[in-house]
Amino acid sequence: MHRYLVGGAVRDRLLKIDVYDRDWVVVGATPEELVQQGYVAVGKEFPVFLHPKTKEEHALARTERKVGAGYTGFECYFAPDVTLEEDLLRRDLTINAMAQDPDGTLIDPYRGQQDLNDRVLRHVSDAFIEDPLRVLRVARFAAKLNHLGFTIADETLALMRTIAQSGELAHLTPERVWQEWQKSLSTSDPQVFIEVLRECGALKVVLPELDQLFGVPQPEKWHPEIDTGVHTILVAKQAALLSDSLPVRFAAQVHDLGKGITPQSEWPSHKMHCHTGLKLIKALCERVRVPNEYRDLALMVCEQHSNIHRAAELRSETKLKILNKLDVWRKPERLNDILLCCMADSLGRTGYENYEYSQKGIFETAYQASLSVNVQDIIQDGFKGAAIREEMEKRRVEAIEKTK
Ligand code: ATP
Ligand code: MG
């Protein structure tokens, strides 16, 4: 039996970028042989095993045949006679279909290295269309490798369009959609994930709430880019420049969903979007099974971003009310996250990329001033029960007022 390093580890090593996980393929073995050697079987649908020591994934070389709908509609064939080349043929992109044997020799039957050098994401074979997940994977790799100059081959994009039109994307499980979306959030260009899905017609199936922002106008005075979808892409990009936090990046992407359902008669104004966006975010997060940490931040940014943008005009009472709503007393790290989302929103407008977002400083100052109010002092001054809270609010407002 032979063991080869495959997939992302080979690709990323050639690109000289960090390798996070290593996947292996085993040729010429049976499941029984691997189990005898101490490997632990983990695959439900495919013959995948964990190495006894490293716990890295080892898959038996296999071929696949489409038999039903969606990601799981495959019949796979594995036996000691399946060759490495046959296994590599079922993979999604040529740059993911290279293997490396233990002495370091590259096995590259589908010209992955050439495409790596040319910075092209290209499908391995026409069997690409058999798995709709590949549309999301390619969009994610486009985001991950965008900074290196990678683009998608025209023929591959055409196949992605074919998949999007086939209706197969509807069979993807929410977990799969979220897994790829979340991975895209940790790349240096998360906005590319959305752009690629839109370009191939997959966005309206997978994330229609984002798709319907395209074509919706905003007031040109504030938004020279006008189109809400274009704005969202710019905000997503700015958020990734400002913060490594995935919930921050997510919240930035969905903060304007409400604008997608403003009645056309009100365009380009979107007076209610901070409110109407909330139910869209809730529904989206439920459908795609977005973790609560992401959802909660996104809801707060959606609800408060217009208020925060108006920081300079707000009364001290209002600033405190907003801080209370954000619950920054119990979750202090939240303030910075929300302010970064708002800043990304502001800088994510054509011509505003270097805008000095003074609103952030105003709220930070208000928060620090509020913190200077000490509850022990209030108790010592004789306040009791509910009056403590009331006095606390009063002193906080006074403290914020003094910072003006
Ligand atoms: P990374 O681990 O950096 O996200 P990767 O390319 O290693 O990227 P994995 O999901 O770990 O991605 O999969 C390992 C390899 O398995 C891929 O490189 C690819 O060759 C193959 N692969 C994974 N999922 C699919 C799929 N849906 N269709 C075709 N090939 C796939
Ligand atoms: Mg991998």
UniProtKB/TrEMBL annotation:
UniProt: ATP binding residues: 8, 11, 91, 137, 140
Entry binding sites for CTP: 8, 11, 91, 137, 140
Pfam families, sorted: HD, PolyA_pol, PolyA_pol_RNAbd
Cofactor stoichiometry and binding remark: Magnesium is required for nucleotidyltransferase activity. Nickel for phosphatase activity.
Keywords of the record: ATP-binding, Hydrolase, Magnesium, Metal-binding, Multifunctional enzyme, Nickel, Nucleotide-binding, Nucleotidyltransferase, RNA repair, RNA-binding, Transferase, tRNA processing
Keyword Magnesium: yes
Cofactor(s) demanded: Mg(2+); Ni(2+)
Boundaries of every HD domain copy: 228-329
UniProt family annotation: Belongs to the tRNA nucleotidyltransferase/poly(A) polymerase family. Bacterial CCA-adding enzyme type 1 subfamily.
Organism lineage: Bacteria, Pseudomonadati, Pseudomonadota, Gammaproteobacteria, Vibrionales
Subunit record text: Monomer. Can also form homodimers and oligomers.
Full protein name: Multifunctional CCA protein
Methyltransferase as UniProt keyword: no
Organism per entry: Vibrio japonicus
UniProt xrefs under HAMAP family: CCA_bact_type1, CCA_bact_type2
Catalytic activity: a tRNA precursor + 2 CTP + ATP = a tRNA with a 3' CCA end + 3 diphosphate; a tRNA with a 3' CCA end + 2 CTP + ATP = a tRNA with a 3' CCACCA end + 3 diphosphate
GO MF entry, a single one: CCA tRNA nucleotidyltransferase activity
Entry note about domains: Comprises two domains: an N-terminal domain containing the nucleotidyltransferase activity and a C-terminal HD domain associated with both phosphodiesterase and phosphatase activities.
CDD domains in the cross-refs: HDc, NT_ClassII-CCAase
Transmembrane spans: none
PANTHER family: MULTIFUNCTIONAL CCA PROTEIN
Further information: A single active site specifically recognizes both ATP and CTP and is responsible for their addition.
Sites where the protein binds Mg(2+): 21, 23
EC number: 2.7.7.72, 3.1.3.-, 3.1.4.-
Known role: Catalyzes the addition and repair of the essential 3'-terminal CCA sequence in tRNAs without using a nucleic acid template. Adds these three nucleotides in the order of C, C, and A to the tRNA nucleotide-73, using CTP and ATP as substrates and producing inorganic pyrophosphate. tRNA 3'-terminal CCA addition is required both for tRNA processing and repair. Also involved in tRNA surveillance by mediating tandem CCA addition to generate a CCACCA at the 3' terminus of unstable tRNAs. While stable tRNAs receive only 3'-terminal CCA, unstable tRNAs are marked with CCACCA and rapidly degraded.
